[in-house]
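Quick one, T. Sequence first:
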Amino acid sequence: MVVNPFARRAHEALASVGAKCRDLGIGAPVTLFTTESEPGAPQARAALDQGADLVVVVGGDGTVREVAKELMGTDVALGILSRGSGNVLAHNLRLTQLDLTRQVDVALTGVVAMIDVGRVELTIADGTVREEIFTTMVGIGRDAEAIEATRYETKRFIGWVAYAAQGAKAALSPALDMKVGLDGAPEVPVTTWTVLIGLTPSTPGGLTVYPDAQLDDGLLHVLRVPITHPWQWVKAARIGLITPRGNTDVLDYDDAREVVVYPKEPQATQLDGDVIADVVELRARIVPGQLQVRVY
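Structure tokens:
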């Protein structure tokens, strides 16, 4: 088990897994706690080195992403106990519909599904390059600013609502100039509130971000939000919450296997809710069917 010690009800989750392991006769799980400097990937590597057959994460999307870095491409499955503030991947796997006991059952005895992962290369304003992955979505622009501005304690106690509240404030910010290229085609200039590149169709708040997305469709789903007036958010919200559909004047969709984004000015970028500042170039590509997850 890889456990974020600050996750909601983390110790209750540990106790529940221990009890289920005893019932199954498989012995006590090895528990590895994350830290600020080691948020999950080193613990996942240690689990693999120790011969783990299954790695169960207790935490949110950030911890899941860190563990998935190490598990992708292996035959070791990922179980998720959704104890974070966002839980977007768990939501799209329908795990957040379950109580803790049932989530533990699925994590330990559920069937295995293969899902896609996104790889991303971020060039920072100082010239450094970071290579990361994402399991839900990556966004560059105002959405990342909103996530960065959301206080940790607020996220911890009210979860996804905290992101929505901060996003409502950020909605008044002006759109940004960027260039976006898909699958090697020439980059196209756009003015957009954000560029979102995702794998998962919806969020825990009931918002449909990518109506046609599936977790194993081998595609990156790209959303540009060319909103220039605050009143246009009413239309965007109606589309996302009530009538998901194709391109409009406020939501512009594409599918691709590779995406490149050049913002006119350095921008914040979020990967599954974790923010990286001052990005001047973003390159993303799909890695189909690389992660085994436990589902029901």
